[in-house]
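Thread amino acids onto this structure.
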């Protein structure tokens, strides 16, 4: 997926269709949960789940599913005209596989007799397995559907200063995320941490996603990779940076809303240093994600010279009249 390769039309159409199907599946589950719990109840379920409150399992979706729905919808629309379409599809496919595959394994292990629509979560296994397949299709399309780019088709990276700031903030966010996981592993013991965060022996509090460790690892890897690409001003800087910033800001906003609803910050001065840092981290990461989005969202570019130098293209210039007069009949 270098600067001289772009995704062909067939790959774009197929990628858009697959992304739309993935979005439609998630939307179906969200509608189901809205019908069961109502908008207000479902929102606070998502927020409490993101904050680790351990609420009773009453919904299939989480806030991360909704953020994935947004990513799928954006990719389905952008892939048809983005020069970084291959990067978009590859990143979306890898993210989907990483998040859905552990949930698929957990549901298979939990299902009685391996019935596809049986067990405690009817249809969930079909959804996660189908999503994994869709993610693999996106990766395949990104790898196999490329063609040489024309002179005007290569991706235009963001300007140097915004790219550098976005890359630095993404790397900082990814490092903070990884640091908290290392702290948890040291504090809990790595064996216990691995079971809690990455275990697949039973369905997790998130039915359609993997355990929290998989979610955190996927977000950290995407954020760090996007940070490196932005610092290098690679052709996929926006294609990686915008989804990473969206997921970073969205997931932390969910946690922050749960903390605000529970009036947790009123106790901040009474807590120890570790707890204070843990409570300050979500709003800081949310803010960093919003700043990165502001830095990377494309802005209308000023008029650039055409291939024949400054001024309009030849077919847009007025035809000259006699003696260089653009209109020999002017004033008559």
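Threaded sequence (332 positions):
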């Amino acid at each position: 997926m270098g600067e001289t390769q772009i995704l062909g039309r067939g790959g774009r159409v197929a990628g858009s269709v697959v992304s739309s199907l993935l979005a439609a599946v998630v939307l179906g589950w969200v509608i189901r949960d809205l019908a069961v719990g109502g908008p207000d109840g479902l929102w606070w379920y998502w927020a409490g789940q993101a904050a680790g409150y351990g609420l009773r399992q009453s919904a299939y979706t989480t806030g991360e599913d909704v953020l994935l729905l947004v990513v799928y919808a954006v990719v389905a629309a952008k892939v048809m005209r983005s020069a970084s379409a291959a990067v978009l599809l590859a990143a979306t496919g890898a993210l989907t596989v990483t998040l859905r595959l552990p949930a698929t394994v957990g549901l298979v292990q939990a299902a009685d007799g391996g019935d596809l629509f049986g067990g405690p979560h009817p249809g969930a296994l079909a959804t996660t397995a189908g999503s994994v397949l869709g993610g693999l299709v996106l990766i395949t399309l990104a790898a196999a559907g490329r063609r040489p780019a024309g002179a005007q088709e290569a991706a235009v990276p963001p300007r140097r200063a915004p790219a550098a700031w976005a890359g630095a903030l993404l790397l900082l966010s990814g490092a903070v995320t990884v640091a908290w996981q290392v702290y948890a592993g040291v504090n809990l013991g790595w064996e216990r941490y691995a079971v809690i965060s990455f275990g697949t022996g039973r369905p997790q509090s998130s039915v359609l996603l993997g355990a929290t460790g998989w979610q955190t690892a996927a977000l950290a890897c995407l954020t760090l990779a996007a940070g490196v690409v932005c610092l290098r001003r690679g052709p996929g800087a926006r294609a990686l940076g915008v989804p990473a910033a969206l997921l970073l800001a969205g997931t932390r906003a969910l946690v922050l809303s749960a903390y605000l609803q529970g009036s947790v910050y009123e106790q901040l001065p009474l807590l120890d240093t570790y707890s204070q840092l843990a409570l300050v981290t979500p709003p800081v990461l949310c803010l960093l994600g919003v700043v990165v989005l502001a830095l990377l969202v494309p802005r209308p570019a000023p008029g650039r010279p055409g291939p024949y130098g400054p001024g309009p293209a030849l077919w847009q210039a007025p035809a000259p009249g006699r003696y260089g007069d653009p209109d020999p009949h002017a004033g008559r």
